[in-house]
Hints:
This protein is mostly helical. 83% of the residues lie in helices and 0% in strands.
Amino acid sequence: MDDYPLLNLFWTMLWFFLWIMWLFLLFKVITDLFRDHALNGWAKAGWMILVILLPFLGVLLYVIFRGRSMGEREISAAQEREASFKSYIRKTAGEGGGGPGGDVDQLARLHDLKEKGAITEDEYQQAKAKILA
């Protein structure tokens, strides 16, 4: 280790870090190419050939020419994922009806009816068993 100065170690680490960042950007460009529905097959093939044959220049040109739409596609995909997640949460929480949360609401209403004296203890137990079944 004596023949490899500390400054050279820092330069090596810097170049390694930049290479890893470029790999992430390359994969991001390739996935964006396949995600984009506005491009036809020939345009996608042309970009792929450019990115494969001239990798640094191809990625740089892609980011320059299509970077804004790349960001817009990423934002719209994130919004779709969030809407899907919220829809799933609503459905399972019972707001959409039929989920476990709907059972909790029904049990709470049954308990309120029992407390008010509108139903008897036996009716409450039968309805509770029906809901939980």
